[in-house]
Amino acid sequence: MWSDLVCPWCYLGKRRFEKAVAELGADVEVVHHSFQLDPSFPRGTSRPTREVLSEKYGRTLEEADEMEAQMEQRAAADGLEYHLDGVHMGNTADGHRLVHLAAERGLADAVVDRFYRAHFTERRSLFDRDSLVALAAEAGLDAAEARAVLESDAYEAEVAADGEQARALGATGVPFFVIDRRFGVAGAQSPEAFAQVLRRAAEVSDGAAAG
Question: pLDDT for 78-99, tens place per residue?
Fold first, then answer.
């Protein structure tokens, strides 16, 4: 699963994928991969998301606010609570580095969820290192270890490699899913669409095993 920590569609796509897995009762191992929507943001800085959306899509600030309101409604329909008024955008590399640390500690999913909830629901910063350390600790990581990672260049190469792999697979945005190394799914598809791909992957896998 390739995603960015400040991508509202990624949180939604993760939730929909999880619903599909739960409905199928499938045994699925999820591997989180990093993808930065805008790596050009200087680290430690941020800008209001409404300004970024306005510039990116050529909309007025009021139209950007409406886009955010619509996103809140979509999220609510899937059981997610978004509060996007006042949310900021920034460089997510440090957050992704902590997700790689979390993966080595068996906590990647917990850390990703904590970061999503912090950003989209609680309006907590993912761009300030003190905030990132606190959030990582709340998800179960050791705070001192998390801070040591952020004060070094640990996992920088892994974050970059994830992005390169996504582009090699043809991904131009996120969320992007690759199921069983065979089936690519782009975007926050419906739980039914994810379930269909998961069933197909299971059929192919069972057929290969039988053969």
Answer: 999 999 999 999 999 999 999 9
The pLDDT tens digits for 168-179 are: 999 989 999 999
Could you tell me the pTM of the whole model?
0.95
Burial classification of residue 71, based on how many CB atoms lie within 10 Å of its CB (0-12 exposed, 13-18 middle, 19 or more buried): middle
- Residue 202 backbone dihedrals phi, psi, to 5 degrees: -65, -40
Q: Report the alpha-carbon angle 191-203-165, nearest 5.
A: 65
Comparing C-alpha atoms, which of 4, 193, 210, 187 is closest to residue 95? Answer: 4
Locate 178 and state its tokens.
Answer: 């690759």
| Phi then psi dihedrals of residue 179, to 5 deg | -105, 125
Q: What is the pLDDT of residues 63-74, one digit of tens each?
A: 999 999 999 999
